[in-house]
Amino acid sequence: MATKTILITGATDGIGRETAKALVADGHHVIAHGRSVAKLEALAAEVQVDVEVADLARFDEVEALAERVLARGQLDVLINNAGVFKMSSPRTESGMDARFVVNTLAPFVLTERLWSLLSPGGRVVNVSSAAQAPVNLDALAGRAPLDDMAAYAQSKLAITLWTRELARTRPDGPTLVSVNPGSYLASKMVKEAFGVAGHDLAIGVNALRRTALDEAVAARSGAYFDNDAGRFAEPHEAALDAAHASAVMAGIAAAIDAWRRASVASS
């Protein structure tokens, strides 16, 4: 297999970290993103990766990350893995729900900004979840509070939905797939949510490697890979509903615009 240049967000913990290590072991060039300099340095001391620091809850830092990656001049795969579930303060400085910002909006902005490097022939792998729920548009806009599970499930349906919609409306771009890497894996998020140790992270790592690298996946743009079932499957029915999809896509565009304007106003 040819060597790929792969950016993986949230690469300092859990599935992201183990996937970054596995991809390096496979001979690929990995750009590992994280929010913690210390954790990135620890990863780089263990395996050969390039590192990028950014807080994905901040629009200016997402933009700066994209600019630095663009300057590298090559990217074959983007794995939008970073995600949050439980937070002591779920509001960003601009008043938005940080679960939607990190889990849905930041991956969308990164994908859009890196589109030129990834097209054609590249791939975007968006980490979703078996937990999906119809999106409350007021919550997406930061106008309605949600509990941790509701925000997480809705943000994961939203990323699954925009994966499908970008693939449908922009078929000449990279292959886009969303992935449930597996339920109840041994991640920090599962421990926070359910208080259980969880299953072997290798289950999720293998799903991300497959969807990022398998040539057969190139023909499945827009699809959802459910690793609990071990196959491509239908996501939550709300992601398939045309009216809901249209409303959520408009809501994502509006939320990103508000996030961008708030960033400019605070700079």
Topology:
Layout: E1 5-8, H1 14-25, E2 29-34, H2 37-46, E3 50-53, H3 59-72, E4 77-80, H4 98-113, H5 115-118, E5 123-127, H6 137-140, H7 148-169, E6 175-180, H8 188-194, H9 202-213, E7 224-226, E8 231-233, H10 237-240, H11 242-266
Parallel strand pairs: 1-2, 1-4, 2-3, 4-5, 5-6, 6-7
Antiparallel strand pairs: 7-8
Helix pairs in contact: 1-9, 3-4, 4-7
Description:
The chain is an alpha/beta fold and 267 residues long. Helix content is 49%, strand content 13%. The chain has eleven helices and eight strands. The protein has an eight-stranded mixed sheet, with helices on both faces. Strand 2, helix 2 and strand 3 form a beta-alpha-beta unit. Helix 1 (14-25) packs across helix 9, helix 3 (59-72) packs parallel to helix 4 (98-113) and helix 4 packs parallel to helix 7. The longest helix is centred in the C-terminal third of the chain and has 25 residues, at 242-266. The chain starts with a strand and ends with a helix.
